[in-house]
Amino acid sequence: MRFNSDLIDVLEIRAKERFTGARGSHGWDHVQRVYGLCQLIGKEENCDMTVLLASALLHDIGRHECDNGNGAKCHAKVGAKIAEEMLKQEGADPDFTGQVTHCVSTHRFRGDDAPRSIEAKVLFDADKLDSIGSVGIARAFLFSGEIGARLDDPDVNPDDVEPYGPDDTARYEFLTKLLRVKERMHTKTGKRIAEGRDKFMREFFKRLDDEISGLR
């Protein structure tokens, strides 16, 4: 499919409008980083770049509703419905719309549906890569601050943590999600990028443990 830059430009404007007042951990800058990673990975994985970049712009447009409900709703499912309506309004082809909504609905790490198309797999990888490495560490602490969680408590059992509660710390995110991101990569390019980010992240949290314990 020929790249449709006009549609991408329109979707960028419309998607950005939905991030007014968004939390910093899932703000428009996150979308921009995912978009950039999709450009990088998508070209190497021979993707339909219009489908992929449209999906990157729209992948978190349901996040606001999720945050307002403290995670009660799946932002990927909500976002897919919003994306479908937006694409219909822009006169997008039904097949194209279906490809994009599949990408959006399956990009969540804790989601029930696995990405099937190469574009959906690339979006999944790009979104998860932004959750590890130095940026991922920064976002994890930013999110814990946004919800009023404490800095750290190594003695808390992860099984006892309430989402969006005081123990939903960056360490909790590291133990329950970020440690597993590398092994969940779908693409060769995603796996390669994840190696360095994962290594840095593990070293950081090991050092954090040492400093909290007074070993450094």
From TrEMBL:
CDD domains documented for this protein: HDc (cd00077)
Transmembrane segments: none
SMART domains for this protein: HDc (SM00471)
UniProt domain HD: residue ranges: 27-132
One family name in Pfam for this protein: HD
Gene3D superfamilies, sorted: 1.10.3210.50
SUPFAM superfamilies reported for this sequence: HD-domain/PDEase-like
Species of provenance: hydrothermal vent metagenome
InterPro entries: HD/PDEase_dom (IPR003607), HD_domain (IPR006674), HDIG_dom (IPR006675)
Descriptive protein name: HD domain-containing protein
